[in-house]
Amino acid sequence: MNKLFRLFLNALNIVLITLVYRLVIGASFFNDQFVFISPYLTLGFLITAAYIAGSIARHFGLPSLTGYLLAGLLFGPHLLGLIPQQDIQALELINALALSFIAITAGGELRLASLKNNFRSIISITLSHTLLIFNGIALLFFCVLYYTPLLALPDTVAVLSFSLLLGVIALANSPSTTIAVITECKSKGDFTDIVLSVTMLKDTIVLVLFSVIIAFISGMYTGSTISLPLLFEIMRHLVVSVVAGFVMGVLLILFFKYIDRNISIFVIIASYLAHEFAHVVGLEHLLMCLIAGFTVQNLSRQGPRMIEAIENSHLPIYVVFFSIAGAGLNFNYSQASVIMVLLFVGARTLIVFGSTYAGAAYADAPAKIKKHSWTAYIANAGLALSMLIIIDETFDGWGAVFKSIMLSVIAVNQIIGPILFKFGLGKTGEARKL
Amino acid sequence: MSPKQLLILFIVLSYTGVVLIYRRKKISLLGGMEYLLVGLLFSLVSVDQALLKPLLYAFIGWIGLLTGMQMKVEYVSRLDRSFYGRVFVYTLVFFCLVFAFLSIVVAPVTALYMAIGLLPVSYLVVARYCKENRYVLFFASIMPFVAVAYLFFVTVFQSDGYTLSFFFLIIACFAIIARFIITNIDDKRSIELILIGLIILISESCAVLNCSALLVTFAVGMYLANFCPLDDVVFIALYKDEKPLYSIFLLLVGMLAGMQASFTFFLQGMAVVVFVAGLKYVLFKIPFFNMPPHYHRYMQAPGGFAVTIGVDSWLNQGVGLQTGWFSLFLFIVLMLQFISVFISRSYE
Predict the structure, then answer these.
(1) What is the CATH number of the domain that holds A295?
(2) Where does B23-80 have alpha helices with state H?
(3) Which residues make Cβ contacts (< 8 Å) with residue A236, sequence separation at least 6?
(4) Which chain B residues contact residue A28 at CB under 8 A?
């Protein structure tokens, strides 16, 4: 079939589905009785519309997840308003499940042999990112906010706090986006392994750094200082999460080895249980699931079976997760916000490019790592979104402003990030399906 | 226990239970209906029903689509007229007599839906014990379609103009859209995803418009079976996890419906059971239906599709079954299922 005609059919499908969905919602008001509209109706609409949007995105050579995100953004509460905010909140179970599932996938994609081979590059890029991105963004925005009346923050402490937190957010990546693009492109090789390892390692650093920065800022407001027990507590938290992840991995191995039935369903259930367990006990569930996936892949022969099971069931999870994520994105159109967003996205992209090149060059990494691996580190969501919620709740004065601006930043990064990464993967030749 | 945890527990139970119930040499005593019983036990657990009840629509949608997909005109037209004549007479006599009897116990509308619900026959039980008799197998497999046809006529006569117009509109819209989307997907492996989306969308739309999700999805399935080039791919995707999904459905139904523990309830239920079992016993003695007389014992079990019809009627509140009567209906189904399997096993 002609490509253009197929594109037209897909667009028509979206229009038809949207019309029917609107008709159903509208028809409920004609009825005299109160009609309860369940969030599952939204879920059905979102899955169908996002899937078709993903197909349209592929027609333009973009990753499917850009289509899912854009569908969520378009139909979400902030643009067309077809999907109510309360429905997005009601579907949080799927979000929680998807995040754990994605983390297990990421862990499963990390191979010890490859990590050993690329150890120098991974450490070098991670360190250069941590030093240059965090310090670069924090310093740049401290100068901008201190010397210009852009956001009119009340005092120097607020400016310093704002800048430091911007630095931490800039360092964060989106492992879910990275893994989704890698899975879609069926990418394998050194480039893929390095990118994935750096992304995961950086997110662990971000977790620690964020806790330290929050403690530091709180200390500035209350007059106390960061204590050794606090750092010890953060480290203990991470170590326990790693141990819990290892135990979970061993349980997964035992299941694959001795029961070996309905593996896809089991991995999904295990993802959910891990999330619930981590939530109840207070562990880092992403780190835990990552270690679990890593354990299965590297300490047993069950890795390929797990990856196969994941590949069989990843599509519904990705579609729902990214379309819901898209619906949660928001753009702040105020002048100050637009300037901040453009400045942040531009500066971060430049520093990411520079620091990746510097780190890769220091480690004598191949040219493809130096030239193209920066494309993987543009997207930032997931962890960044969680941090925004904490910042908004912790800092009454400027937390809301920070959240509002950074939501726009994340929206922009989430849209351009996957596109750039798919482009980067294409250039390296590691993508088997583009 | 939160609805999320309960749902996960149900999924685990259904996938592990399938091995115990369906993969044994002997069919289990309730012929797959154990899940309904377990679900009824779960009704003792306090849980927010409003969060879980909408899920039933999606299950009904899946079963409706799966059943509709089996209604291929090409295959159905191969059976001769005398077969259909016998099916028609049998179902009509059975339906009218059961309806008349139930009308003594319950309100006529409730009796109508319960009588339709008792029409199907458990294919699992029939296929286990009568696999050598193709006529009986065809007879049992045609019953869900006949029940759906009865349900359709009852729904059309029961509904007001507003509901009816939306009912036909929604069938037409979704049938065309579903075919359109399915035939145009780029990657055939993603068919399951698009089916999940469509089933949820269609069945939840029915919930909003107060239409029968079973009838709408059955009609859409029928349309796809006969007019969609990818009908086989769709059917395989729908059929793949049939048993675990049915089990989760039964667990949910049992838990949400609950059961009354009163002597009147028990007496009413047993009276209907005795009547239905006796009626089938008598009907199978009539030579016109062309079936071995002792086969009545295999045909007593109404099976999972009976529960599906009951749930569909229960969900359409106002025109269907009320919760109390729905519990009674489930009790009758369970008892008939038990009687059928128990007698069949003792003659084995």
Answers:
(1) 1.20.1530.20
(2) 34-42, 49-69, 73-76
(3) none
(4) 208-209
Instruction: Give strand pairing partners of A187.
Output: A431
Confidence band for B22, pLDDT divided at 50, 70 and 90? low
The answer to whether residues A239 and A279 touch, using CB atoms and an 8 Å cutoff, is: no
Q: Average pLDDT over chain A, rounded to whole?
A: 83
Would you put residue A152 in left (φ > 0), alpha (ψ -120 to 50) or beta? left
Asked whether the beta carbons of residue B177 and residue A17 sit closer than 8 angstroms, the reply is yes
Q: Give the single-character DSSP code of A259.
A: I
Interface confidence, given as ipTM, is 0.87
Mutate to test the interface with A, among B176, B179, B181 (most CBs of A within 10 A): B181
Range of the domain at A256: 95-428
Residues of B in contact with A261 (CB under 8 A): 15, 19
Please give the backbone phi and psi of residue B186, each rounded to the nearest 5 degrees, phi first. Answer: -80, -40
Identify whether residues A106 and A40 lie together within a single domain: no
If asked whether residues A63 and A109 sit together in one domain, one would say no
> What's the number of CA atoms in the CB half-sphere (13 Å) around residue B346?
7
Indicate the average pLDDT of chain B: 84
- Structure tokens given for B177: 């859209």
Specify the 3-state DSSP secondary structure of B256: helix
Output b/e per residue, B5-34; b: 16+ Cβ within 10 A. ebbbebbebbbebbeebeeeeebbebbbbb
- Phi and psi dihedrals of A431, rounded to 5? -80, 125
The DSSP bridge partners found for residue B91 are none
A320/A418 Cα distance (integer angstroms): 17
Q: How many CB atoms lie within 10 A of CB A80?
A: 12
